[in-house]
Amino acid sequence: MDSNDIRKKFVEFFKRNGHQEFESSSLVPDDETLLFTTAGMVQMVPYLLREKDIEYPRVCSIQKSFRTVDIDRIGEDGRHLTFFEMLGSWSFGDYYKEEAIRLAFELLTKEYGIEKDKLWVSVFKGDKNIPEDKESYEHWLNIGIPQDRIVKLGRDNFWGPTSEEGPCGPSTEIYFDQGEGICIKKEYVCCKKNKCIPGCDCDRFLEIWNAGVFMEYFKDVNGIFSKLPFTNVDTGAGLERLSLVLQGKKSVFETDLFYPLIENIKKHTPEKDKFNINSAYLIADHVKASVFLISDGVLPSNEYRGYILRRIIRRMFYHKTFIGNNDGGFIDLIEKVIDIYKDQYPNISDLDRIQNVLFSEDLLYSNTILKGIKKLEDMIKDKKIILGEDLFKLHDTYGLSLDMSKDILKAKGIKFDERGFQENMRRQQERSRMNSTFSLGKGMESDFSDFPKTEFLGYDILSLKDAKVLYSQRNGDDVTFILDKTTFYAEGGGQVGDSGKVVGNELEVDVSNVKKTKLGVYLHFGKVVNGDIKEGDFVSCYVDKEKREKASFNHTAVHLLNEAVKKILGNDVSQKGAFIDSERMRFDFNFPRALTEDEIKAIEDLVNLNISKNEEIEVLEKNFDDVKKMGVDLAFEDRYDKNSKLRVVKIGDFSVELCGGTHFGNTSSLGHFKITKQESASKGIRRIRAILE
Ligand code: SER
Fold first, then answer.
1. pLDDT in tens, 230-251
2. What is the pLDDT averaged over residues 537-556?
């Protein structure tokens, strides 16, 4: 049965059983805290928590998914992948354990025709928080799985949450027995444990379906479980593994979803003694994942999602070179990925774009990383093991990441001391932490009490010349310094400190953060790129304009959000914290429950309405009594110096707040405000995460 038929049968079966089909969502989830879409349930979370109204109590989908948990195992066995498709089904408060088990069993044995005797199952054995799942055990017995093929497992059979907090529950999983001696890594010798059962780490018992996470719990950010007032079923089967079983193969790389890719790689690897099947598997997995990630808008970079994409692209290029897979054929390989998937996922068809991204990354790889690789290869020549300090040097001086070094050393079968690397890394972090916090640690404020208050000019201008260096302390490239005047905003009011550059005579420092003491002394933290910075020097400050602007707009949006939350949820609600940088904002407030979909929408609409009013953002200096008359919330009246001027930020007639942050211009510059997530921050405190688009 080819993979198209497997998908089709799955959807038809669940539709016949009353399920509504949902389209696959993007690999980039709406939830900013979640790196990638790792399962079909990601787009279902709002329904699982009833934050969205349930229109369809039974749902199914075929979801493209990307996981990094097994990234180090790719190519080493026949079942782990980064990109895969998940065939999933859900019941939102409709059927529960018995029906979920019946549906999965019927589809596998009747529709797909898998022999019942090859199936094993596992159920949750219970732990200190959650009781054993006895019901599932009974249902499997009743449906005809004998006792000796039902195993009770612990952590492996508890699933979720996918994010910092969320719905979760015990699960029951179905395995296909590939027979003794199937372990691919050990040349078809089954694992050496006394008794090989599901949960064992070899390829024999292939988990084909998480046939039901019974989501009746919520785990919060503090790890506390509470019972949800409703039940859910969340299931997921890996298409690649089902294809393996239904196509009679031993590895996912032998199925129709991979075979054309492996053939291409073999064809374009001229020196047959250099060819290595594990590298071919890795190249096939990573090229496929790259095509999908790029098509969903991820671009290689050094941060967050972009970093993962960069990592898999570089790893793929390395393995191509390693086995000598450089006899053309790369475009053909990308085209083959598109051919396999274009009917199911039409958005991956833009060959030119995918090619451009991959080729520019190849150029960068050849110009930069190759130097580090060369250095590592020199080291390998006379060493049997690579020490932690060498790995660290490759990372710190030659820009070769630990991941990359590990990949190369593993491919070449050379040992390395990862713990030693971590120890070197820890020491360096400690040094830079000392640099960035020693001044503000307990009792340390006094270290800077002799310095004059820094003159801050950054509300009006972003660069200035002739700032005098009053203090500087270096530790390697890390530096902390104080100037007599600055344009760098110091962390405060929830807004991050500015970043940018400080330059002088043959001097260049990348400033990454700025903090201020209670007495108003600004401490700049950064890395010296060139030269040295010494007391008495004169330097120029250049704040990163784009980041400052974006952080300012986000800060203004938080003022609008603060007001909108009060208007929609009631005046008892007040701000309990905020974090604002150039990318996003986080806003905490007291509220006893999750917001409904309607409330979220109303808050978004009210903020956007006020953005569209094109109001000027006024920053006023007022004395305390005038501020009181303006109706500003002075919850902590004692904190303000009644004799000095206070800074008030006013947005039309909608919002007025005391604030030391950077605000400017007009609300029309903000763009569109969107709430990306709501969650609990701690007991009784809700958190909204939002962005400007
Ligand atoms: N969310 C569960 C999993 O990913 C079931 O779909 O295994």
1. 999 999 999 999 999 999 998 9
2. 95
Report cis status (omega within 30 of 0) of the bond before 452.
Answer: no
Q: Is 235 in the pocket of ligand 1 (CB under 6 A)?
A: yes
In this prediction, residues 470-477 reach a mean pLDDT of 86
In our burial notation (b when 16+ CB lie closer than 10 A, e otherwise), range 466-477 reads ebebbbbbeeee
- Do 176 and 269 have their domain in common? no
pLDDT(194) > 80: no
**Spacing, Cα 168 to ligand 1 middle (Å):** 10
- Contact 500 CB / ligand 1 (< 6 Å): no
Bridge partners, residue 123, by sequence = 152
**Residue 21 Cα to ligand 1 middle (Å):** 17
Give a yes or no: residue 23 inside a domain.
Answer: yes
88 CA: nearest ligand 1 atom: 6
* The pTM of the whole model exceeds 0.70: no
What confidence tens digit (pLDDT) does each residue in 29-72 have? Answer: 987 778 899 999 999 999 998 889 999 999 999 999 999 988 88
pLDDT in tens, 614-672: 999 999 988 888 888 887 877 656 666 677 788 999 999 999 998 999 999 999 999 99
**Residue where a domain terminates, one of 543, 566, 586:** 543
Element (H, E) at 485: strand 485-486
Which pairing describes strands 485-486 and 455-456: parallel, antiparallel, or unpaired?
Answer: parallel
If you take atom 4 of ligand 1, which residue's CA is the nearest one?
39
Distance 145 CA to ligand 1 centre (A): 22
- In this structure, are 475 and 587 located in the same domain? no
Contact by Cβ (8 Å): 59, 22: yes
In a domain, 20, yes or no: yes
Ligand 1 site-directed mutation target among 89, 122, 171, most atoms within 8 Å of CB: 171
Full domain range(s) for residue 208: 3-250
430 pLDDT band, cuts 50/70/90, is low
- Residue 159 Cβ inside 6 Å of ligand 1? The answer reads yes
How is residue 525 annotated by DSSP? E
CB of residue 234 inside a 6 A radius of ligand 1: yes
Q: Which of 39, 264, 330, 55 has the alpha carbon at shortest distance from 168?
A: 39
Rounded to the nearest angstrom, the distance between the alpha carbon of 234 and the centre of ligand 1 is 7
Q: How far is the CA of 351 from the centre of ligand 1 (A)?
A: 31
Ligand 1 centroid – CA 42 distance (Å): 9
pLDDT at site 435: 47
Distance CA 299, CA 283 (A): 19
Pair 155, 176 in one domain? yes
Query: Which tokens in the block code for residue 627?
Result: 């501020």
Ligand 1 and 39: CB distance under 6 A: yes
State whether the beta carbon of 161 lies less than 6 angstroms from ligand 1: no
